[in-house]
Amino acid sequence: MNSISTDLEAADLIHGRMTTNKLIVASANPAKWLAYASLFFVASVFAQTSPVNSSIPATVTVQANEAQDLLSAPPVVSNQSANPANAASLFAPVTKSDTPKIYTKGAPSGPTDMDLRQLWNELKLNNPQLSSLRESYLSAKATVPQINAPANPQVGLVWSGMPVNSPFALGGANTPTPQNPNGISSNNAISIAQPFQFPGKKSLASDIANTNAEALLAQSESTYLQLGAQLSTLYYTALASQKQLQVLKESVMRLEMIKNVAKARYSNNAAAYVEYLNAQVAQSSAQADQFNVERQLSVALNNINTLVGRHSREKLILRGDVRRAMNSVPTLLELEDYAETSHPSLKSSALQLEAARKGVDLAKKAYLPDFQVIGSSFTPRGPFSANNGAMFYQLELDLIIPLYFFTKEKYGVEQAQRNQAAAEAGNISNRQQIALAVNSAFASYEQAKNQTQFLKERQVPQADAAYKVGLTQYSNNGQGFNDLLTAQTQLRNLEVQLALAESNLLQAQAVLLVTSGKEPF
User: Fold this and answer.
1) Which of 98, 172, 311, 348 is within CB 3.0–4.6 Å of 107 for a Cys-Cys bond?
2) Which of 189, 193, 196 is nearest to 375 (CA)?
3) CB contact at 8 A, 219 and 344
4) Dmax over Cα atoms in the chain, in whole Å?
5) Beta strands in 134-221 (DSSP E)
């Protein structure tokens, strides 16, 4: 029989502390199995009834050749694609070298180890949706200097009075002839026209464009937090699946012990063979549950790869310690204050409101006239001939004034004021929604925290004690086999519930921090 590897945690109910010991269970005949089981549970009961002898372990760890637990402390893992130094260049101007490419990568050959912080860095750098928002922000920022730039000048070239039979006689249009001794053209000219807007219009319009671009950046940061919350949920769901696999392996090991005890008692004519068969069926059921959990883990890893911009079939190993991740959470008042001042969504709505107010000022400036300056140079010659006359110059100033009873300007101001009112209402609504979301997330976090503590401190230790007592009784006198299977099943279910409760607690914690505008690490 191959040995089975796992770590079995149990609480010392008398002394209130966790103890762990290792016992190598190898191949043995039924009599030796019975001896091992009897020795272990006599020692366990003695440890619970004798406060003096606290060195006797209350748990057993069975080692074997299977994979190690993935819920160890997160190691320091290097990842070239998640280099935080690249974050400084995310909003640099687009050049030929960093022109956006297709965000689909091929599957590499080797695995990648990542914790939650590294996954968030990958999300920030490689997620296609965030990359699209960054490019949209850069595109919006590129419109600011365009709006602030002066209007293009107009250059004009005029010649006239050409002979009837020489429509393109550019060089001799003003040459004297017997029929026209004084020439024909006297108004050939070169003119330059430059339009100007009323002072303050262009700078205010560019300021509005810049404010809208910054609001777009704040929206991208809010989207980043939302995607990060989704990533955290997938991450802790995958860790919960890994923990469930560990619990099921421990259940398989416990059922293996029960099955060997039943087999040993049957060989000594002290138990029915059906007890061994029932234990074997229960063990097979636990092994079948592992297949479903492994499928759930595979789906979660594929979703994580897709979310962070990697190939879905890329090898990914998650590293993280569930208990270390359960850090203290700020109070509700602190979270609400932080969300009021730092949440990207509120920043975006505030910037949109500021742009709307500036839009009202710009609409009112539409009543002011614009200008155009025209400079002209006249000469009585052809435009491409030698100078044969005196040149003179002309300067013209034009006003572009709003006519038609200011209809366009009046409704433009009304439109801007309506936009400002809509932005103010949207800002208030957004603040209310953020405050409600923080309160709701905090309530969910408290509920998940209480449920996790109840399972960890009461239900799981009680189920573990019931399982040990049932196995001890069955090993000593062969009674209570059905009670033993029930206790083992109850212990397995509660351990799975604890793993899910810890995952739900960490998901609620991540959602709470993200809702208030923080990264969950």
Assistant:
1) 311
2) 193
3) yes
4) 145
5) 154-158, 188-196
